Amino acid sequence: MPLPFLRFRSLYRHSHTHLLTRHFMATSEPITPSNTRLGWIGTGVMGQSMCAHLIRSGYTLTVFNRTPSKAQPLLDIGATLATSPHAVASQSDVVFSIVGYPSDVRSVLLDPNTGALAGLKSGGILVDMTTSDPSLAVEIADAASVKSCHSIDAPVSGGDRGAKNGTLAIFAGGDESIVKKLSPLFSSLGKVNYMGTSGKGQFVKLANQITIASTMVGLVEGMVYAHKAGLDVGLYLDAISTGAAGSKSLELYGKRILKRDFEAGFYVNHFVKDLGICLKECEKMGIALPGLALAQQLYVSLKAHGEGNLGTQALILVLERLNNVSLPPSVI
Question: Which residue intervals define the domain 3-hydroxyisobutyrate dehydrogenase-like NAD-binding in the entry (predicted)?
């Protein structure tokens, strides 16, 4: 057999074996710290805690934040800082993002020069955990597919405490087999719920925000009413917490409100953005949700008063202004 042919056959076997190995890595082998490099874009209130869980689970993390100082706590526990989303993706197999607005998502993932997708190798996975437009999630998934990559929209609910405790509700849209493959990573962050094709995770998160918005309005209205009725508002909250009026919002925010603790677990500015996306989707669907519209206006009022960087529990301030009352601070 001619020597050049033997060399060609050897090269083919090596190349074919390499391709099979890559295919196996991409489809069959479970994700572990030893075979999967992770990237993280956005290390704010939520992202920092979520990323830290993955580092503590043994994964190698490369991170990016527009304000590098916000990533310092993650660097202190072993993360590596990158200079752009593109640089993060070029060193990662799976890239997570959780940023502020849909425009930020588009920039960090789809920018042809600095975006993560441009730096991602074939078979790589993008996981956007930002609350964003469902149509943008579909666009990202289509763009990823062109590069033989995958994209999952996986927004979360649970606030800063859920992020810190690893108990977030995760709403995933995209290829179900990829969501299952990512389950070892999601399990470090909370409980993943597969909701359907690309964009469906975002639709669930928007419905979640609609529910939370009206629940928060009810919570703060009940507190103002109890105060005007001469009740001890703390005792009132305890009394209703185990009945039908009990809710996660009451559990997470009732006592924070009484302590006048308005530190953001989730920013008013971001909630206004989320509710605005909800209203835009309602217009597309041709449906009217008056409770959503009212809640959005109340939160816009907070933003107009310069309180957009407070937490969503600051809605009590709007009700206090409307009724010219002030709940007494509590030390409970």
Answer: 199-318
